[in-house]
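Objective 1.3, modelling of assemblies. Example input:
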Amino acid sequence: MPAGTLLYAQSGGVTAVINATASAVLQAARARRVPVLAARNGILGALREDLLDTSSLTAAEIKGLAHTPGGAFGSCRLKLKSLTEDRAKYERLLAVFRAHDVRWFLYNGGNDSADTALKVSQLAAEFGYPLTCVGVPKTIDNDLAVTDCCPGFGSAAKYTAVSVRECALDVAAMAETSTRVFIYEAMGRHAGWLAAAAGLAGAGKDDAPHLILFPERVFDEADFLARVDAVVKRVGYCVVVASEGIRTADGRFVADAGGKDSFGHTQLGGVAAYLAGRVKDALGHKVHWALPDYLQRSARHLASQTDLDQAMAVGRAAVECALAGQNAVMPVIVRDSDTPYHWHVDIAPLSRIANREKTMPKHFIRKDGYGITAAARRYLTPLITGEAFPPFGRNGLPDYVMPDIRPVPRRLPAWHG
Amino acid sequence: MPAGTLLYAQSGGVTAVINATASAVLQAARARRVPVLAARNGILGALREDLLDTSSLTAAEIKGLAHTPGGAFGSCRLKLKSLTEDRAKYERLLAVFRAHDVRWFLYNGGNDSADTALKVSQLAAEFGYPLTCVGVPKTIDNDLAVTDCCPGFGSAAKYTAVSVRECALDVAAMAETSTRVFIYEAMGRHAGWLAAAAGLAGAGKDDAPHLILFPERVFDEADFLARVDAVVKRVGYCVVVASEGIRTADGRFVADAGGKDSFGHTQLGGVAAYLAGRVKDALGHKVHWALPDYLQRSARHLASQTDLDQAMAVGRAAVECALAGQNAVMPVIVRDSDTPYHWHVDIAPLSRIANREKTMPKHFIRKDGYGITAAARRYLTPLITGEAFPPFGRNGLPDYVMPDIRPVPRRLPAWHG
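Predicted structure (tokens):
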């Protein structure tokens, strides 16, 4: 049993499988008899010395985390700046680590978190404090560099493809006398990965979704409306998937077109709502839209088995890396082949991942800009393959585990950062 | 083998399990060697003599319909008026029935469809045409009279409860530094059945959803905002479920508060978007909202086993009724006990169902108006119990069946109604 404590923290938007990574981390550490603390609400908990003692969790609770969405210890949106600008915060982190004998720090997040983990490792080296920092990949946006895909994305992608297929069957059945145009808004502020995944819902020329709007392409409203109308005339209805991050030629987010309602109240924007209004005004078709919002990133009931396997694999690998003293690295997914799909975990330096953003390759978007290519299908399909249904209770709901975890007594003065 | 043809048609909004009813109808009729025609797009297909010959469907296709959402033959929103006002349409229906030797008419829909089926049976009797009309219940709104519950509702209710629970875990994990208020918009223009089902997502005092807005109660904005703020202060975040049909004291639908965006374009309304804007303006909390729209009624991937069983049972019973000559009736679900849940199918006259609407009993809504009671839980829980996942393919998507069905050659002149 190595001396010291492992600290695990979750960062940024949660996913359907980030707790599966946590579960794998806890299992791997227990197998090596390494005690694990978790920071409540991510790095904020580390700064506040608000730590949770996972030794109180039963084996069944840890196993249950693997099928529970959300973030078991809480997450946060807090980006630390440079070592110079946020010096006091980084030093506070080290003070907390020292106070609890934290020798391994696992930070489960995206490219911002990779940057934080990297900087913490640099400061520890500067102070001569023996600390191993390991990033653990997580994001539904699939925008991390180096790794072939990001745990969290596959399940959100599966949710998106299945939901769009189901809605399309609904619209197809009703279009003659009811809704002709249906618009589904997918998350993705900068990269259209989830919108692309919706493309898996259909395969034939006139299968839904008929039009996909990517943030990688400039949104041309007149062209879009003409295409919607043409699809309605040809197919009888039109299913549109719109990335929340689409922008017009002047760089304005379409989603930011919110205005005031008739009482002068703020009306919040949204791509789908905006497009629906334009379709109604300009084309006169009956239109419906859906905004799944957090449903798409928390739908553990429809997780992808591939995604779940990868989420757990990076958790296990992170513990192994850390205990082996591999500092400032992140376990990443390497794809060996598309069909049959084979992958393995490799280790990459955080410096190659921190603050970078991977957008969709150009050859994943069809030439006309409104659909995905065969190459995109080859890439995406394995990521949504396999089902990993959670156990359900006799009350008809998934047996999600929300354990109450014991806080660790504070050893330092309160922090007022 | 009885002489004649059975005509089956789907009506109104589709559900996750209306095709399961269709599947059961086709199986039961085949077992009795009765040929089945289906009207394309509901009663509209019957009027147009646009009929489909289900004899071309394989047994595997019919079985597959039971796990496929949407409406296999198409549905429609078309309410026939009184026998006097729409006389020509009713006579046309009879003409089509005669031309194709239709002796049994099964109309799968809600209270409007029950009314149509009843009127057709009356006209047939007046003309001395031997026809047996049977309504088959279907609606996610759960607002049909007589029956204890409606096939289609249980699956939409399960989707709602699971989705709200999943989103609540997401918000709970992020609330410290991100979204504090989350609003989920549920279908239900007149009755809050689906919003009530969301209440199953939590059980403890401070479990999400914290506030449910029912169309059965007047929406008081100031009271609502004060409660949201109180929950955020006490719990750290607040999950709201709002029925699309809530109204203010003057009878105005909250959802109709749409306005214009900054470009003067129509901005479509929506309860969740409106409430989100008010929370942001009045309380300043970061807010997100979800509008699942058709996802909630087409999510076959999350169907309730109880709902599926009942959808198939009413389909089988409808065929048995029809062939036994029980005219102007509808198979209904009778609840024998809550725990353990037992039910059976009974037969009720259409006259007791047509054009009626069942709202939620008053004692299902908590006294403060913002939650459900233990009685509501006892009623709702069995309806979402059991999982009936569809088979999934190696592409990660459900194997939904969309058979191409042979149209029946027309025997009458075209209809210009």
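Chain A touches chain B through 87 residues (CB under 8 Å).
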